[in-house]
Amino acid sequence: MAQAIVVRALGGPDVLKMEGITLQPPGPGEVQIRQAAIGLNFIDVYFRTGLYKSAEGLPFIPGKEGAGVVTAVGDNVSRFVVGDRVAYASADGAYASERNIEIAHLVKVPDGIPLETAGAMMLKGMTAQYLLNQTFKVGPETTLLFHAAAGGVGLIAGQWAKALGATVIGTAGSQDKIDLALAHGYDHVINYRTDNFVSQVKEITSGKGVDVVYDSVGRDTYPASLDCIKPRGLWVSFGNSSGPVDAFNIGVLAQKGSLFATRPTLFGYIATRPALEACANSLFDIVQSNKVRINVNQTYALADAAQAHADLEARKTSGTTALIP
Question: What is the pLDDT of residues 100-143, one digit of tens each?
C-alpha cells in the first residue's frame, strides 16, 4: 500500500499525518510513478494553512514537486514508458510514496541528474528560470536585489544571475546564511535583521537603486523594497513567506519613480507543453553545465513532513530540501 501525508484539517505542521492510501491503476493520459524524492516548498505551507485553497477541498495530499520512476502507464500515453525517470513541479498531491499523475505535468530527467536532486529542484529551479529569463531579462547591465538569498530559489537564482553577468545583491538573516549566499553567486549580501537594506542598497549602487527586486518575503519587505528600485524599475512579488502584502494604492508606484509591479507564478509560465519543456530544459542545461549547483541541504523522511514544515517556517533551513518516501 502506498503511503501519503493527508491533510484533514487546516492548521499548523501537526495536521500533516501519514496514512496508507489505495492507489488505483493510472487512468487515460496518466502514468503511475514510484517517487524517489519530493520537494519541500513554502507554497506547501500556504495550502496547509489555508492561505491558498486546495482545489480538492479537505482532505487533500499537499505538495507540488517530485521525481521518480514510471511504474505503470495508462491509456493514450505515448510520451512516457515504464522505467522513465521523470519529474514535475506543478501537480498537487506530491507528498506520497507512489502516485498517479497526468503526463501534462511531467518531463523526463536527464541521466546526469540524480532523482533526489531533480525532486527537490524543479519548482525552485524553474521559478529562478522564469524570474531571471522571462519576467525580467537579466544580463550584464543588470543590478538586482533578491530577498531570501539563502533560500531554495535564492541560492539557485544567485548563481544563475551571476552566470548571466549581473551584479547580484541579496538579503539574509544570519551570518551563516550570508556566507552561504556569497558562495552561491551573490556579490553583496545584507543582513536584514541588523542592517537597513534600503540604505545598504543605495550605498552599494551609489544612490541609483537596482533594476529589479525579487521579493518572496512579502509583508516584512514591503514597501521598503520599492525604495530600492531605480525609476521605471520592476518589483517582482512572487511569494509571501512573512505574510501577504496588504492591498496598496497603485499610486505609490508613481510616487516611487514610475515603477512597474508584477505578481507572477511559475504555473502561469509553464501552462503549455512547449513552455514547460523550454523552462525545464533551460534548468537542466544550466545545472549540467555546472554554472548552477543544486545542493540538497536537508532531507527528511516523508513521515517527518511536520518537522520539515516547522523548520521551514522557523527559517532553520537553507537551499533545497527533499522529503524521502
Answer: 999 999 999 999 999 999 999 999 999 999 999 999 999 999 99
Burial environment of residue 23 by CB neighbours within 10 A (0 to 12, 13 to 18, 19 or more): middle
What's the pTM value of the predicted model, to 2 decimals? Answer: 0.92
Does residue 132 form part of some domain?
no
Residue 245 CB coordination number (10 Å): 18
Q: Tell me which residue has cell 531533480.
A: 118
Q: How many domains does the chain have?
A: 2
Domain range enclosing 154 = 140-263
Mark whether 196 and 173 lie in a shared domain: yes
DSSP string, 257-273: TS-EEE---HHHHS-SH
- Residue 306 and residue 196 share a domain: no
Query: What does DSSP assign to residue 97?
Result: S
Which one, of 93, 112, 103, lies nearest residue 35 by Cα?
Answer: 93
Q: Per the domain annotation, does 133 fall within a domain?
A: no
Residue 246 has pLDDT above 90, yes or no: no
Please report the pLDDT score of residue 245 as a whole number: 83
| Cα first-last separation, the chain | 13
The C-alpha cell that represents 143 in the structure block: 543590478
Do 101 and 25 share a domain, yes or no? yes
Q: Is residue 11 part of a domain?
A: yes
- Omega of the bond leading into 231 within 30 degrees of 0 (cis): no
Q: Which residues are 73's β-sheet partners?
A: 31
Nine-digit cell string for 21:
492510501
Say which CATH number the domain at 147 has: 3.40.50.720
